[in-house]
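Query structure, 402 tokens:
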């Protein structure tokens, strides 16, 4: 085994660059002197690193920083709004979504294409994705901004070590190198690409809003059902990256067969299509029209719509109680279509959790609705690309200034 080596100049600069940019990311704005005080670095080191980041358009100078007492006020530093953007892609079962997010997390552009990807081969779907990516890259160029990275959200098991999509039951995909295929089809050789599970990206987007809990399970209800688990402000993916597959938890051993090969899975009895089917509104219309019809019937207290939603809530409560009992999470965040159905899900879901969660007498489970809804996953994918730059800016700066 080789012995540890001392940190070189580049390693130290890389570490210090991250420290400085993290301090600048505070939206209130800080001067070079204040950043030096916050990080413990010398003013000369901070100034050198800041100059590099300004040169790479990661940082901009603003108005003089507010400073109490006498003395010259320094210039406040901020993340550059026209700095590198994150490109987010979500390959949904029945849609394709893309968006561009800036360094501050603001969505600068978004696109949504309804399409039933179950009827298409991986090659055809990825060709569509590549076209959507090229459209987003062209828009970024028109806006005069760089794309610094891309995140791709997929509805299946993504292996952490390789980024390979091992299986996506609702798409019928197995062993697909999404990253490699998109690099080749969209010409992304110089753009970092991260592939991940859509529910995990959705949970991260919820976390990064900064207004909610730091410990929760985010459950997104679409055609499939996925869960992203956040513990102490960090995503819990499991050993191989396969954690959170709540949609394939068995809730009815005699229930219908599932695309995963099992029977009675949660998504087969409480997924979007099953709710629509039981409510009597499932037909050939696009999903958005179907869900709008369901919401209208619920608002009018249609008997079948209410019964379908209540049945889904009870099944969801069975599965989530198992998650909460195992992981001791205090909060459930309803995402995707569930966020829109929340007013009709809350009462039966809370009742089920109260009955089944052993600790509910002392720590009742809070159930809240995501404010991002169905857009959470694509936002999280784009946000992951941005946060990768913020967490380790030196490689990006070096590449831009080379």
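Result returned for the query:
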């Amino acid at each position: 085994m080789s012995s540890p080596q001392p940190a070189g100049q580049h390693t130290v600069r890389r570490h210090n660059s991250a420290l400085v940019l993290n301090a600048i990311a505070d939206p209130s704005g800080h001067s070079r002197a204040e950043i030096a005080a916050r990080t413990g670095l010398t003013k000369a080191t901070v100034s050198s690193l800041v100059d590099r980041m300004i040169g790479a358009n990661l940082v901009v100078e603003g108005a003089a920083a507010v400073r109490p007492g006498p003395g010259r006020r320094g210039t406040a530093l901020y993340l550059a709004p026209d700095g590198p953007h994150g490109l987010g892609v979500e390959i949904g079962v029945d849609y394709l979504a893309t968006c561009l997010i800036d360094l501050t997390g603001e969505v600068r552009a978004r696109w949504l294409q309804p399409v039933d990807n179950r009827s298409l081969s991986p090659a055809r779907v990825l060709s569509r994705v590549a076209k959507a990516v090229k459209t987003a890259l062209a828009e970024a160029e028109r806006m005069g901004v760089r794309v610094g990275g891309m995140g791709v959200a997929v509805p299946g098991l993504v292996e952490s070590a390789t980024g390979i999509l091992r299986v996506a039951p609702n798409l019928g995909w197995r062993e697909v190198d999404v990253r490699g295929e998109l690099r080749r089809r969209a010409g992304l050789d110089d753009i970092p690409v991260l592939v991940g599970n859509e529910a995990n990206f959705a949970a991260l987007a919820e976390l990064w809003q900064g207004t909610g809990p730091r410990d929760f399970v985010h459950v997104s209800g679409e055609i499939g059902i996925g869960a992203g688990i956040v513990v102490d402000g960090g995503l819990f993916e499991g050993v191989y990256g396969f954690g959170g597959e709540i949609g394939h938890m068995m809730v009815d051993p005699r229930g219908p067969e599932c695309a995963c090969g099992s029977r009675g899975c949660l998504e087969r009895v409480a997924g979007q299509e099953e709710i629509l089917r039981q409510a009597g509104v499932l037909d050939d219309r696009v999903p958005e029209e179907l869900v709008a019809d369901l919401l209208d019937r619920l608002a009018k207290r249609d008997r079948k719509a209410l019964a379908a939603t209540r049945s889904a809530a009870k099944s969801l409560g069975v599965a989530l109680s198992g998650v909460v009992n195992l992981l001791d999470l205090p909060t459930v965040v309803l995402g995707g279509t569930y966020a829109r159905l929340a007013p009709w899900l809350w009462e039966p879901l809370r009742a089920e959790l109260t009955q089944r969660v052993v600790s509910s007498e002392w720590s009742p489970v809070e159930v809240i609705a995501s404010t991002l809804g169905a857009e959470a996953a694509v936002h999280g994918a784009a946000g992951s690309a941005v946060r990768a730059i913020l967490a380790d800016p030196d490689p990006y700066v070096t590449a831009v200034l080379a």
